[in-house]
């Protein structure tokens, strides 16, 4: 049996992992400065080029910010889903995946998020979810507010699921989940339907009913897919493209 040799990791990547490990070991938090370059060169026993490549990689991942000038250097940051969003979008684009891929993923993932949210969502998050429903209903004539609250609603549920993976996934894809960025429109009749669906999902989560929450979300996503397939079939078939 022939084994394919694994590709050795670059020294810079291994060093980046060590730096992150040391950040955790020291208990560094956002805003903390890491040791200056000369100290890091001595501590890690690497060349300046390797160290700088590692630090640039960590900066791109949102782990640190490189402050210029005297007293500057690497400063610990809180990573967000920006890098994940870019990576996922590029992977999908180079796989020639259509927008339908995102819509189908929602149908599989979001009912589970709602089910977990019914069991785990905090009272504070529940209030935030209620506020999103109310704000959307109060500004039903404003599509900008509608789209903002639509994203907020699903984001609160993802984070309320208590599963960090769901939170980051929804955050990463938040800009394209509703399809508005690539041409799916929401006339008032559709916005009213979304408010009704969000209210049903909220009610199920608020009563801490996992099965009803999952079913309400499943119905909501199904209605969205039916609407998109009927009104915007070309959009669903369009390839996902990385956009700034």
UniProtKB/TrEMBL annotation:
Lineage, top-rank taxon, reads: Bacteria
Q: Which UniProt keywords apply?
A: DNA-binding, Transcription, Transcription regulation
> Which Pfam families does the record cross-reference, listed alphabetically?
FCD, GntR
| Source species | Nocardioides nanhaiensis
The residues covered by the HTH gntR-type domain are 9-79
Identify the PANTHER family for this entry.
Answer: TRANSCRIPTIONAL REGULATOR, GNTR FAMILY, UXU OPERON TRANSCRIPTIONAL REGULATOR
Q: Does the keyword Lipid biosynthesis apply?
A: no
List the SUPFAM superfamilies. Answer: GntR ligand-binding domain-like (SSF48008), Winged helix' DNA-binding domain (SSF46785)
By what name is this protein known? FadR/GntR family transcriptional regulator
């Amino acid at each position: 049996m022939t084994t394919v040799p694994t590709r050795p990791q670059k020294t810079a990547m291994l060093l980046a992992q060590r730096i992150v490990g040391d950040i955790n070991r020291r208990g560094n938090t956002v805003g903390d400065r890491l040791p200056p370059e000369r100290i890091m060169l001595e501590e890690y026993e690497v060349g300046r080029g390797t160290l700088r490549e590692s630090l640039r990689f960590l900066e791109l991942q949102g782990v640190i910010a490189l402050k210029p000038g005297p007293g500057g250097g690497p400063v610990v940051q809180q990573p967000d889903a920006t890098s994940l969003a870019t990576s996922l979008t590029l992977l999908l684009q180079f796989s020639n995946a259509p927008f339908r891929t995102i819509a189908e993923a929602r149908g599989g993932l979001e009912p589970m998020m709602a089910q977990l949210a019914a069991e785990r969502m905090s009272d504070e998050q529940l209030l935030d979810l209620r506020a999103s429903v109310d704000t959307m209903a109060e500004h039903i004539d404003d599509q900008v507010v509608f789209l903002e609250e639509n994203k907020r609603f699903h984001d609160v549920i993802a984070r309320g699921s208590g599963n960090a993976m769901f939170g980051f996934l929804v955050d990463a894809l938040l800009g394209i989940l509703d399809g508005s960025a690539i041409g799916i429109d929401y006339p008032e009749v559709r916005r009213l339907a979304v408010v009704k669906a969000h209210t049903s999902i909220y009610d199920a989560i608020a009563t801490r009913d996992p099965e009803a929450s999952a079913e309400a979300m499943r119905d909501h996503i199904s209605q969205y897919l039916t609407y998109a397939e009927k009104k915007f079939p070309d959009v669903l078939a369009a390839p996902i493209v990385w956009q700034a």
